[in-house]
């Protein structure tokens, strides 16, 4: 699963917000993350089905649009101190919508005319890097702006990636057949960086 900087910046600090600032019992926080995992799993199945019908690029754009909208909604919930239970049961939906681009990313990288092994390796590396950077950025944002802005940041990352996605043509992912190289095609590198900043 591709984890992005925008999404990973919210993960640890939402638990901190609920447990410390809202004094929510930890077992409810645990249930929230359990439901998040189930929702993320479901998103792969649903988004994969949608990608088969609409194509990976449209599904990718749809996922980033969902990520933007759900991030803004979560930011509003925190900003206006909505009931902790509402937040707990909304966050899995947020995860479901943000997970929508993942199958499309895999489909685009698995094009038969590309070096799939290298591409997937780079995507996994970018995912791990984003997961490492996201919480660090989240910690800085919390100390400066508060918890709600974490989801605004997540929304900004989704919006940037959505706009970048529309700049890509379908031809980007239908590369001419060529000899295997240690240096991936520049379009593949661009796409992997795109996946790094948001999903």
What does this 3D model show about the protein?
With 199 residues, this protein is mainly α. It has one domain (5-197): Up-down Bundle (Growth Hormone, Chain: A), CATH 1.20.1250.20. It has helices spanning 5-8, 11-21, 26-54, 56-79, 84-98, 101-109, 116-145, 148-165, 186-197. The longest helix has 30 residues, at 116-145.
Q: What is the total tally of β strands?
A: 0
> What is the first-to-last residue Cα distance?
10 Å
Structure classification: mainly alpha
The number of helical runs is 9
Poorly predicted ranges: 169-183
How many domains? The number is 1
Largest sheet: number of strands, sense, barrel closure:
none
Fraction of helical residues: over 70%
Short description:
The protein has helices at 5-8, 11-21, 26-54, 56-79, 84-98, 101-109, 116-145, 148-165, 186-197. The chain is an all-alpha fold.
Any descriptors?
0% strand; 199 residues; mainly alpha; Growth Hormone, Chain: A
Q: What's the topology here?
A:
Blueprint: H1 5-8, H2 11-21, H3 26-54, H4 56-79, H5 84-98, H6 101-109, H7 116-145, H8 148-165, H9 186-197
Helix pairs in contact: 3-4, 3-5, 3-6, 4-5, 4-6, 4-8, 7-9
């Amino acid at each position: 699963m591709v984890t992005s900087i925008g999404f990973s910046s919210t993960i640890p600090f939402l638990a901190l917000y609920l447990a410390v600032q809202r004094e929510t019992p930890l077992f409810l926080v645990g249930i929230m993350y359990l439901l998040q995992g189930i929702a993320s799993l479901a998103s792969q199945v649903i988004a994969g089905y949608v990608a088969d019908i609409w194509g990976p690029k449209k599904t990718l754009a749809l996922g980033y649009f969902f990520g933007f909208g759900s991030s803004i909604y979560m930011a509003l919930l925190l900003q206006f101190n909505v009931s902790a239970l509402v937040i707990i049961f909304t966050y899995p939906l947020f995860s479901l919508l943000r997970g929508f681009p993942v199958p499309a990313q895999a489909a685009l990288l698995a094009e038969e005319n590309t070096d799939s092994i290298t591409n997937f390796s780079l995507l996994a590396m970018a995912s791990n890097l984003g997961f490492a950077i996201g919480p660090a950025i989240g910690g800085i944002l919390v100390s400066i702006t508060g918890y709600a802005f974490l989801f605004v940041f997540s929304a900004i990352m989704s919006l940037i990636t959505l706009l970048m996605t529309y700049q890509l043509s379908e031809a980007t992912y239908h590369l001419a057949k060529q000899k295997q190289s240690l240096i991936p095609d520049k379009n593949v590198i661009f796409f992997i960086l795109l996946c790094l900043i948001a999903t």
